[in-house]
Design brief:
alpha/beta, 5-stranded parallel β-sheet
């Protein structure tokens, strides 16, 4: 015990005080199992590394503001077989963060978009990436507030610094000026510098009209959708199914559109001079076509089904 007391100030000076938590246990193991000095030191070093990793993960999760209960382990894949589980597990490797690519999760309300977004954020934190989770609406309100006290640049930097920015419920609430400009600034500054994971209950073709500006929408979406991974989810609301009880739960909706073209143009005079088309092919891919009057045609390839629309005149 005298030796341990002598070690304490030295370990603290070397910032290795965590070793003290397992020192006595490891010492007893070393005696009982006749470890060599090198093996004993290795076990102590492993304990310290594990302790530091856990501390760093806890710190990253707190900064990310993700719900620590929303993990892949707690996600119920069985409730909705339409979810591409393999694609989710591929995204869980966080390779897209390393590649600085975006991820888009789209689907109707209650199918697990926010849970999956936070779970993927949790996985990125586990792999050492800095993450920030917020709703798109809260981010835009926060940025706009910076104009009043001159802190806009500092607030904008807070959304540019993390390696992964998760924007939840994009398009759920109207984007009022100067929101479209602020959103463009975030997308533009993060383009090929950091990843954005975005969840929305709107189809990508509907995002165009949120900007209320044809040119700004084209520029922002071109950057946001470029090389993005897309995860489309169909089916009924998990919360609605849970409330209905097992006897009233309906099977998830199926969309067997192998080769057809779905036009998302509003009836009557269009609000924008840009037709929006979502084309489907036999391979299961989707191509969003954004064509502006007198400008180039932008095409972005998606993967996954398209859910039935239940809102609006589409």
């Amino acid at each position: 015990m005298d030796l341990q007391h002598q070690l304490t100030p030295r370990l603290k000076r070397l910032r290795l005080s965590g070793i003290l938590e397992t020192l006595e246990v490891r010492n007893q193991q070393a005696i009982a199992e006749k470890w060599s000095y090198v093996e004993f030191l290795t076990r102590l070093a492993e304990d310290e590394v594990e302790r530091r990793d856990h501390k760093q993960l806890t710190l990253r999760l707190r900064r990310a503001t993700v719900n620590t209960g929303k993990t892949l382990e707690s996600f119920d894949f069985a409730f909705n077989p339409s979810i591409n589980r393999q694609q989710v597990l591929d995204l869980a490797t966080s390779l897209y963060v390393q590649q600085k690519r975006n991820v888009l999760i789209c689907g109707p309300t209650g199918v697990g978009k926010s849970h999956l977004a936070q779970a993927l954020g949790h996985e990125a934190c586990r792999r050492g990436y800095d993450v920030l989770f917020t709703s798109a609406h809260k981010m835009l309100l926060h940025l706009n507030g910076g104009r009043a006290d001159g802190s806009y640049a500092r607030r904008l930097n807070a959304y540019l610094k993390p390696e992964l920015l998760i924007l939840d419920d994009f398009g759920l609430k109207p984007i009022l000026p100067p929101g479209p400009e602020d959103l463009y600034d975030v997308v533009n500054e993060r383009y090929e510098r950091g990843s954005i994971l975005l969840s929305s209950n709107r189809t990508p073709a509907e995002w165009y009209e949120l900007f209320n500006d044809t040119l700004l929408a084209s520029a922002a979406l071109d950057r946001l959708l470029h090389n993005a991974h897309t995860l489309f989810i169909t089916g009924e609301s998990y919360r609605a199914q849970a409330a209905a009880g097992p006897e009233r739960r309906a099977p998830p909706a199926r969309t067997d559109r192998s080769s057809q073209e779905l036009s998302l143009i509003r009836s009557g005079e269009p609000r924008f001079p840009a037709p929006l088309l979502l084309r489907h092919n036999a391979a299961g891919g989707h191509i969003l076509v954004i064509q502006t009057a007198g400008a180039a045609t932008y095409r972005h390839r998606f993967l996954g089904p398209v859910w039935p629309r239940t809102r609006g005149p589409f």
